[in-house]
Amino acid sequence: MIRISSGMCGLFGVVRSPFADDPGRASDAFVTLGALAEERGTDSAGVALLGGWPGLGHDGCRVVKGRGRFSAIWRTELLAELDRAPVALGHTRWATQGSPVEPANASPMLVGAPGAAGIVATHNGDVDAGALRSRFALPAPSGGTDSEAVFQLLAGRRDPSGVTGVLEALVGRAALAWVDRDRPTQVHLARAALSPLAVAVDAEQNIYWASNPRWFRVVQRYTRVRFVTIVMLREGTYMRVGTEKAPGRRDRPQVLAAASFVPTARPADLDDRVWTGFTDTDRARDQATLHHRLAAVAVA
Predict the structure, then answer these.
(1) How many other CB atoms sit within 10 Å of the CB of residue 178?
(2) Residue 4 domain flag
């Protein structure tokens, strides 16, 4: 394991409503969130664009990522694909485990599952990957991150009890957003210990997530998007949001499943850098809700 820094990564993304008049509004919000997420990571950045609705001309999953800032990897020629993608995930990285120069350590990551299409996933945090690999029989990693071990455990798990079982096994900081490749109009969101995650819904019923609630307020200031709800997820929250994929049906995105669990952190995980970029008010409000369990510390 290579521990690079104690910085925090940034998560952001959108699940589109099929009833939005102009897909460009949500696309502008997504790109703005990516630019704001640079405050939580400049080692690498990436986006995943996922298809799913008939007639949108975008099938499967396209991942674009590279070293440096989000603004360095984002290209305007991707806007047409972003406008068509029912789901878009984004990530900015501050490396805590795994070399920042190795492409395999950048997110979003595509991770397979036996007999399934696998997942595309993002993670903000730092967990004990060694403990996960010693406890569970996981495939050999392709990189050096803790994120890959978490994604390997989540790949192929669909029911909330199976997902929360994995989330309860994590020791450390974690916020996650991932998509099952064969269910590309649905996103799994989870906040385990500490790592923040906010969810917002706009006036067109698009659903967004981000590592900092302030970003949504900035998006409102500089784009045409107006949010009707902005909520910080509490520690120990899991939800699956999106649309049911059914022939001839166009549903608004909604919460399809939800569950709670007890997250576990290490004493050293409680660090003010968890709230990098937060306003004092947002930080104090979130800190007042913390309820994770502390892992036992070995005594020499």
Answers:
(1) 23
(2) no
